[in-house]
Amino acid sequence: MEKIILDCDPGIDDAMAIAYALHSPEVELTAITTCFGNAHTDVTTKNALDLLALFDASHVPVYEGLNQTIDGQLPREGAPWIHGHNGIGEVTIPTSQKKAENESAHDFLSRITKEHPGELTLVPVGSLSNVARAIKADPEFVKNVKEIVVMGGAVRHPGNITPLAEANIHADPKAANIVFQSGANIRLVGLDVTMKTLLPQDKCDEWRSRNQPSATSMADIVTFYINAYKENNPGIIGCSLHDPLAIGTVIDPSFVQTVPMKVTVGEAGESYGQTVGEEDEASSVHVCLHVDSERFVAHFLSRVV
Ligand code: BDR
Ligand code: CA
């Protein structure tokens, strides 16, 4: 069983990733750390706590992360046109009784990887600010973390927040460069593969018909995402399973095929947030370029709610 920490910005596909991880015996969700991206970090922290309660998993601790980039800039407003103003499609779910832990996300990441060297896989699916901060603050972090499975970037595929940039990398490009150039063992799950993994539209009706609170809430939340996809991506039917695919590659790495690449991120001008990948056998960054989408989507659907 792989022990994972999900660093996330829930976020609708983040919510699906949380459910997928919780319902998959191949992984143990040991903690959630929160970051900004789809909304500011106070909102994503609340969503993480509330979603865990909805999925009956409040035992999973939540550590709040940075609400600023690695160089101290305030984040953009979020992505209300895709995730709603509250990050979960304007849907209200019950408020959790639990609060976030007192330790910050980056201190937690540093401490827990020291306590369990080589055992923990970190799965960041939002801005990379917390991870970059842990790398900068702790010289042993890169050696102690087993693998970093990043949802982010687009090496061959166009961007989704600018013509060239993917949203998570664009949220903090300097942090992304720190992470990609750290020498850590990294798998990059970007738009090159996630845009090929589509959740069929009729699934929400099926979830709703179960008459079970978490399945109904997820159906409502995901319906917002599917409608937003329809408006913003003419021709796409359904919605992309970005963050769930990152979890999927931990459950079963054979869902994807990777190529080692040196990855650099643009920090200015038109290329701000763009991920450029150059094939390089010696690189520790493994970029996913192919996905068995049919097998992955079927697996995801058999687990998610
Ligand atoms: C990524 O950006 C966010 O909107 C999603 O949650 C996902 O992590 C996709 O570009
Ligand atoms: Ca996300």
UniProtKB/TrEMBL annotation:
The keyword Lyase does not apply. GO terms for biological process: purine nucleoside catabolic process. The keyword Hydrolase applies. Residues 4-297 form the Inosine/uridine-preferring nucleoside hydrolase domain. Keywords: Glycosidase, Hydrolase. One of its GO terms (cellular component) is cytosol. One of its GO terms (molecular function) is purine nucleosidase activity. PANTHER family: INOSINE-URIDINE PREFERRING NUCLEOSIDE HYDROLASE, URIDINE NUCLEOSIDASE. This is Purine nucleosidase. It comes from Aureibacillus halotolerans.
